[in-house]
């Protein structure tokens, strides 16, 4: 996995979550707090999620094969989508079930110092993990807002870890609030309410992850800045006079496909055109290093044809032509 995949952030989150999960289960065993049980399952699910991200990064490094000629870069998207499913089912749905049971059958919290002590420890550990994820993300985020970064990032690992850590910190505060109110009032219902809030939070985060990862799985184009760089690199003003149309597609977080029909002069020789295409490909790779698969098709520019607009029926995903009978 490349540095942009956020390996450091994933490993930091994995270590923190394993330690936190163990402490939460111990606290649940001594106190009987449903919030602690829900939080323990949440941390265990998060640990599994980080393991999934590491496995996806490893599998994505495999070389291309005849059956998969564009490589396995999208493995990282698949495993990130699995993370959203695990977070929804194991984390969110379990917490909702446990919270419902605790509200329906409340009981007092025993040995209150166990859950309180563990929650304070967990907040510190998760804060360290969250800080690492923020630091790793800032190297890629640039001037984007956090919302834009999560929505536009092509490498799924850092947005996943960021959202997981953020959800974990908020969930810990909710658990601490539920336990605190249960202790203050002597009513275990508050512990159940805190657990329900944790479940709702995890489901919301899981749905956000699922939507964003689905977009990556379907295939996203290069960013606006990258497209501008590619367009500027293609045209040399001599043999390649313009771009008739162009498509870009991320084959993985660090691998971009570029396909374009370029305009050449009608009296250029085949040798001149081939040389110009080779030069254009070199310029594209210099401007956007992740553009590793490039297909440039030469054509004679026609103002009449350009005025007709793009042919949607010739575009993948366009409408199916209507057949006359």
What is this entry, summarized?
Helix content is 65%, strand content 10%. With 325 residues, the chain is mainly α. The radius of gyration is 26 Å and the shape is elongated.
Give an account of the 3D structure.
The chain has 325 residues and is mainly α. The protein is 65% helix and 10% strand. It has helices spanning 7-31, 34-59, 75-104, 113-141, 146-152, 157-185, 189-218, 224-234, 270-287, 303-307, and strands at residues 240-252, 255-264, 291-300. It has a 3-stranded mixed β-sheet. Strand 1 and strand 2 (255-264) form a beta hairpin. Helix 4 packs antiparallel against helix 6 (157-185) and helix 6 (157-185) runs antiparallel to helix 7 (189-218). The longest helix has 30 residues, at 75-104. It is elongated, with a radius of gyration of 26 Å.
Oligomer: single chain
How much of the residues is beta strand, in percent?
5-15%
Mean pLDDT: 84
Query: What's the total helix number?
Result: 10
Query: Which value, in Å, is the CA radius of gyration?
Result: 26 Å
Structural classification: mainly alpha
In the sheet with the most strands, the strands line up as: 1-2-3
Q: What is the rounded distance between the termini? A: 54 Å
The coarse silhouette is: elongated
Helix and strand element order: HHHHHHHHEEHEH
- Helical amount: 55-70%
Largest sheet: 3 strands, mixed
Unreliable stretches (pLDDT < 50, length at least 5) are 1-5, 320-325
Q: How many runs of DSSP E, i.e. beta strands?
A: 3
């Amino acid at each position: 996995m490349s540095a942009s995949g956020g390996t450091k952030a994933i490993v930091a989150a994995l270590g923190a979550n394993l330690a936190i999960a163990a402490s939460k289960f111990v606290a649940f065993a001594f106190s009987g707090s449903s919030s602690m049980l829900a939080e323990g399952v949440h941390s265990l699910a998060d640990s599994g999620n980080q393991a999934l991200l590491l496995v996806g990064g490893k599998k994505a490094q495999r070389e291309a094969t005849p059956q998969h000629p564009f490589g396995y870069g999208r493995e990282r998207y698949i495993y990130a989508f699995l993370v959203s499913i695990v977070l929804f089912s194991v984390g969110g749905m379990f917490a909702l079930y446990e919270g419902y049971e605790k509200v329906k059958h409340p009981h007092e919290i025993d040995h209150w110092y166990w859950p309180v002590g563990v929650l304070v420890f967990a907040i510190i550990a998760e804060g360290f993990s969250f800080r690492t994820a923020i630091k790793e993300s800032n190297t890629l985020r640039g001037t984007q807002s956090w919302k834009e970064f999560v929505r536009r990032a092509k490498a799924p690992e850092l947005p996943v870890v960021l959202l997981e850590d953020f959800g974990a910190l908020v969930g810990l505060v909710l658990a601490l609030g539920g336990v605190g109110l249960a202790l203050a009032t002597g009513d275990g219902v508050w512990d159940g309410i805190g657990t329900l809030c944790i479940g709702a939070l995890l489901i919301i985060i899981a749905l956000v992850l699922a939507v964003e990862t689905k977009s990556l799985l379907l295939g996203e184009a290069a960013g606006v800045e990258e497209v501008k760089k590619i367009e500027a690199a293609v045209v040399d003003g001599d043999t390649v006079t313009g771009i008739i149309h162009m498509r870009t597609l991320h084959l993985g977080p660090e691998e971009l496909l570029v396909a374009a029909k370029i305009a050449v002069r009608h009296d250029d020789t085949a040798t001149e055109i081939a040389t110009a295409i080779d030069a254009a490909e070199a310029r594209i790779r210099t401007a956007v290093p992740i553009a590793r698969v490039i297909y440039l098709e030469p054509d004679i520019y026609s103002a009449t044809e350009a005025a007709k607009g793009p042919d949607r029926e010739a575009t993948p995903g366009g409408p199916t032509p209507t057949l006359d009978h």
